[in-house]
């Protein structure tokens, strides 16, 4: 059991080292274990299982599964963003209704206008 704990500790230390050396956490989970991944240069490393992917090599060889999943993920993210913006629009609209201070109303109206623009662009990307 101790070797398993040592292995986990070692992977966490490796991940921390990658981050300390300028690596960044990716938003894409590991394809093997769905774990957290860190990108450093052209290499992506899973902190959970240790899987490593060279993005330079992956970019030159198309991955059919990745190519099929990308539009679905993008559409899901855009739909989620649109829902969030719609909630914000409803919230700001109700706040404007209850606000008596004209300068605050103006600020909220400008924010509302920006949200509407973002929502319009997001929905046009969704299709």
Q: Secondary structure elements and their pairing?
A:
Layout: H1 2-20, E1 24-25, E2 37-40, E3 43-46, E4 52-54, H2 55-60, H3 64-98, H4 102-126
Antiparallel strand pairs: 1-2, 2-3, 3-4
Helix pairs in contact: 3-4
What report would you give on this structure?
There is one protein chain. This protein is of the alpha+beta class and 127 residues long. The chain folds into two domains: 2-60, no CATH class; 64-126. Helices cover 67% and strands 10% of the residues. It contains four helices and four strands, in the order αββββααα. It has helices spanning 2-20, 55-60, 64-98, 102-126, and strands spanning 24-25, 37-40, 43-46, 52-54. β2 (37-40) and β3 (43-46) form a beta hairpin. The radius of gyration is 22 Å and the shape is elongated.
Brief summary of the model shown:
The protein is an alpha+beta fold and about 130 residues long.
Counting helices, strands and paired strands, the structural category is alpha+beta
Domain count, please report it: 2
Q: What would you call the shape? A: elongated
The percent range for helix content is 55-70%
The SSE order reads HEEEEHHH
- Low-pLDDT parts are none
How much of the sequence lies in strands comes to 5-15%
- Cα end-to-end separation: 52 Å
Spatial arrangement of strands, main beta sheet: 1-2-3-4
Number of helices: 4
Whole-number average pLDDT? 81
The number of E-state strands comes to 4
Based on CA atoms alone, the radius of gyration comes out at 22 Å
Largest sheet: 4 strands, antiparallel
């Amino acid at each position: 059991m101790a070797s398993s704990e040592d292995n986990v500790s070692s992977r966490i230390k490796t991940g921390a080292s990658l981050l300390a050396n300028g690596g960044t956490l990716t938003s894409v989970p590991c394809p093997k274990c769905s774990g957290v991944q860190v990108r450093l240069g052209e290499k992506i490393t899973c902190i959970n299982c240790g899987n490593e992917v060279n993005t330079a090599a992956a970019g030159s060889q198309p991955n059919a599964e990745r190519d099929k999943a990308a539009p679905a993920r993008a559409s899901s993210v855009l739909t989620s963003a649109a829902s969030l913006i719609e909630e914000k629009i409803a919230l700001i609209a109700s706040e404007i209704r209850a606000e008596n201070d004209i300068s605050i109303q103006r600020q909220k109206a400008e924010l509302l206008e920006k949200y509407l623009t973002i929502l319009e662009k997001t929905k046009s990307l969704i299709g």
